[in-house]
Write a structure and sequence with these properties.
heterodimer, B: mainly alpha, Globin-like, 70% helix, Globin domain-containing protein (chain B)
Chain lengths: 168, 147
């Protein structure tokens, strides 16, 4: 299964950065980018239900095919299901951002869950990642500048790729 | 032919009416070049694209960003026949510029994020849905004449 193309190898543009290698072989994030990512997600933890619900709602509105995975939940805009499910997702992403190099270990249980129980087609991870970026932009405005956007896109792509690793 | 609801038409018109093309165009293109650096392959003669700061300060990038947004305006004004509106531009991008059509989607995603950052809470899920549907039609039309 191909990893998301946004994780493709490219030469670094940061002359004084250090790259940390993770077990996945992804060393695309500089230390500065990792700090930036951790800081952003840290701010989302107290509002995880709101943010998570918004990401899911954006995804299901823009990409209606994704609704097929939620037949068992009430996915109307202010539903408690949407908030609690959204909260789970945001907290998992936030937790992982505190130690990105250990992503493979931290995500092992979620890998198993997605591969054997949920079996969400991994093309949908990209769609949710995009809606997470849109949510962050809507909340952060100019602060979500191109550098933050690039770092976050790389992180979320790596997260999605790791999540799909046990599929086959 | 694409069917647009009243909400979708009103939303698209409203977003573009309120938009500063000279701000959003450069912001979207420079963001695309930063977030997806391989897109720089089409801008070899644009000078310094070495890092994010250089890209965001590059006057040729800014000028081209404005050109792209003004091109998008044609679709806004012809929502019922975007395919025909872009037939020539599609040929241009395919045969002369040789742009991989996947790049249209990347730029569209960056434009969505720039608009979200400008509109904040007003960029609701429904507004996003309409905006992305519009951009999907644009992207598809630009890729239509490739063969």
């Amino acid at each position: 299964m191909q990893a998301n193309h946004t994780c493709a190898v490219r030469p670094s543009r940061h002359s004084t950065s250090t790259h940390s290698t993770s077990a996945t072989g992804y060393n695309m994030l500089t230390d500065h980018e990792k700090e930036l990512i951790a800081k952003i997600w840290d701010k989302m933890i107290p509002v995880a239900s709101d943010i998570g619900a918004e990401c899911l709602l954006r995804m299901m509105t823009t990409f209606p095919g994704t609704k097929t995975y939620f037949a068992h939940l009430d996915i109307r805009p202010r539903s408690p299901h949407l908030r609690s499910h959204g909260k789970k997702i945001v907290l998992a992403i936030a937790e992982c951002s505190k130690d990105i190099s250990s992503m493979m270990v931290t995500l092992a249980p979620l890998q198993t869950l997605h591969a054997y129980k949920l079996r969400i087609d991994p093309c949908n991870f990209k769609l949710l990642c995009h809606c997470i970026l849109v949510t962050l932009a809507a909340h952060m405005g100019d602060e979500f500048d191109p550098v933050a956007h690039a770092a976050m896109d790389k992180y979320l792509s790596a997260f999605a790729a790791v999540l799909a690793e046990k599929y086959r | 032919m694409v069917q647009w609801t009243d909400f979708e038409r009103k939303t698209i018109q409203s977003i573009f009416e309120k938009m500063d093309y000279d701000d959003v165009g450069p912001a979207a293109l420079s963001r695309c070049l930063v977030v997806y650096p391989w897109t720089q392959r089409y801008f070899g003669n644009f000078g310094n694209l070495y890092n994010a700061a250089a890209i965001q300060g590059n006057p040729m990038v800014a000028a081209h960003g404005k050109t792209v947004l003004r091109g998008l305006d044609r679709a806004v004004k012809n929502m019922d026949d975007i395919k025909a509106t872009y037939a020539e531009l599609s040929v241009l991008h395919s045969e002369k510029l040789r742009v991989d059509p996947d790049n249209f989607r990347l730029l569209a995603d960056c434009l969505t994020i720039v608009v979200a950052a400008r509109m904040g809470a007003d960029f609701t899920a429904d507004v996003q849905g309409a905006f992305q549907k519009f951009l999907a039609v644009v992207v598809s039309s630009l890729g239509r004449q490739y063969h």
